[in-house]
């Protein structure tokens, strides 16, 4: 059955199912990555800009111990500030290294030197061309419907078609691919596989909080918004062209469209000389950055971000990653059925 889905991706990495479980900082640790890889796809450890080298070392060691191929995912803009964790991750010889969002070339070169397959996410055709020039072995055409950070300029299908017509390296599709129908569609278009985040974010092995799982389970495809409000609130140094797609909540309702006011409120807080945030205001209300850190720690999803793409409308939560991978594998049946339709009409 899986022969229908042999692609450059499955051959490069020795997979049964042409799916990469995307790096998701704060959601995809080694446990999820290993579970996905054991099931025949490949999983990535998401490494956020605030992770310590020790944490990264422990995570990659766990994946190495599991004895399956795994990937690691970094943000190029964060590596430019500190690349210690990158070196630690490369020492563990990950099969796949994802570097996105910023100037990728130096990191692509170093990851290739240790024999890794290197993937770069691109949100425009220009970014895809730059990724190929930088030496990426896989270009991920990532549309604006995707969860988490990235560009919101082009949707997955128009981007995928143009990128497939433009670059020579294998192309993966990302953004809104949440099950076998989406995978079959992008394979039929010529992609070598799918790069999937949201569909794995609620898996048993993911680190999403119980509250995040609850809101993900309830959300529909129209329940997400794209923007920078969470980055502004947390004073994260994401380049402005890479906003994030997350579930609508009280915080996005209050601040989306009022980014200048939010930045002003945060910088007033910042002027207060207090470590990790500002002082409470006269009414005893904590400053925005402190309140956001607290909301994240306490799993208060009315304020903290729950990063998700538009595919959230059809995902299940609290299911093992192996079940999600097995569901994706059913794309082979869909592809066979569509081949029969083509045969019948020709
Ligand atoms: C919760 C979450 C966290 C993410 N964190 C990262 C990350 O750390 N690094 C990265 O390159 N991409 C990250 N992404 C983006 C994914 O790599 C991928 O582009 C996206 O999930 C694909 O779209 P989908 O969510 O519709 O499947 C994240 C996505 C989500 C949903």
Distance between the termini: 24 Å
- Written as H for each helix and E for each strand, in order along the chain, the element string is HEHEHEHHEHEHEEHEHEHHEHEHHHHH
**Low-confidence regions:** 272-278
User: Helical stretch count?
Assistant: 17
| Alpha carbon gyration radius | 20 Å
**CATH fourth-tier homologous superfamily of the largest domain:** Aldolase class I
Main sheet strand line-up: 1-2-3-4-5-6-8-9
What is the CATH architecture assignment of the largest domain?
Alpha-Beta Barrel
What hetero molecules are bound to the protein chains? flavin mononucleotide
Helix content: 40-55%
Percentage of residues in strands: 5-15%
Largest sheet composition: 8 strands, parallel, barrel
Keywords for this structure?
346 residues; alpha/beta; TIM Barrel; eight-stranded parallel beta barrel; 17 helices; 45% helix; globular; binds flavin mononucleotide
Describe this structure in words.
The protein is α/β, with parallel strands linked by helices. About 2% of the residues have low confidence. The chain has 17 helices and 11 strands. The strands form 2 sheets. Strands 1-2-3-4-5-6-8-9 form an 8-stranded parallel beta barrel, surrounded by 6 helices. The protein has a 3-stranded antiparallel beta sheet with strand order 7-11-10. The chain starts with 7 loop residues before the first helix and ends with a helix. The chain has 2 domains: 238 residues, TIM Barrel (Alpha-Beta Barrel); 89 residues, no CATH class. The site of flavin mononucleotide has 30 residues, from β4, β7, β9 and α10.
């Amino acid at each position: 059955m899986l022969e229908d889905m042999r692609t450059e991706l499955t051959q490069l990495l020795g997979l049964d199912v042409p799916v990469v479980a995307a790096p998701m900082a704060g959601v995809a640790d080694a446990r999820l990555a290993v579970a996905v890889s054991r099931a025949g796809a490949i999983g990535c450890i998401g490494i956020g800009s605030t992770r310590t080298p020790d944490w990264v070392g422990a995570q990659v060691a766990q994946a190495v111990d599991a004895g399956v191929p795994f990937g690691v995912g970094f943000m190029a803009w964060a590596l430019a500030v500190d690349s210690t964790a990158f070196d630690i991750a490369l020492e563990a010889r990950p099969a796949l290294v994802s570097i996105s969002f910023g100037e990728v070339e130096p990191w692509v070169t170093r990851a290739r030197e240790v024999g890794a397959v290197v993937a770069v996410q691109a949100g425009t055709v220009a970014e895809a061309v730059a990724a190929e020039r930088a030496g990426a072995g896989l270009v991920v055409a990532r549309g604006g419907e995707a969860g988490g950070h990235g560009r919101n300029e082009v949707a997955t299908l128009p981007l995928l078609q143009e990128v497939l017509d433009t670059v020579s390296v294998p192309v993966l599709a990302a953004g809104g691919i949440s099950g076998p129908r989406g995978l079959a569609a992008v394979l039929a278009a010529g992609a070598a596989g799918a790069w999937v985040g949201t569909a794995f974010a609620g898996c048993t092995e993911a680190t999403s909080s119980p509250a995040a799982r609850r809101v993900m389970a309830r959300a529909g495809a129209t329940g997400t918004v794209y923007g920078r409000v969470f980055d502004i609130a947390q004073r994260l140094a994401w380049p402005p062209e890479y906003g994030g797609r997350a579930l609508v909540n009280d915080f996005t309702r209050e601040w989306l469209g009022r980014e200048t006011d939010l930045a002003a409120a945060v910088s007033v807080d910042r002027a207060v000389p207090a470590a990790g945030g500002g002082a409470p205001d006269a009414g005893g209300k904590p400053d925005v950055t402190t309140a956001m850190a607290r909301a994240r720690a306490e799993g208060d999803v009315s304020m903290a971000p729950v990063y998700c793409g538009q595919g959230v409308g059809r995902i299940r939560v609290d299911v093992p990653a192996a079940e999600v991978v097995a569901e994706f594998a059913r794309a082979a049946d869909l592809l066979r059925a569509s081949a029969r339709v083509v045969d019948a009409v020709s």
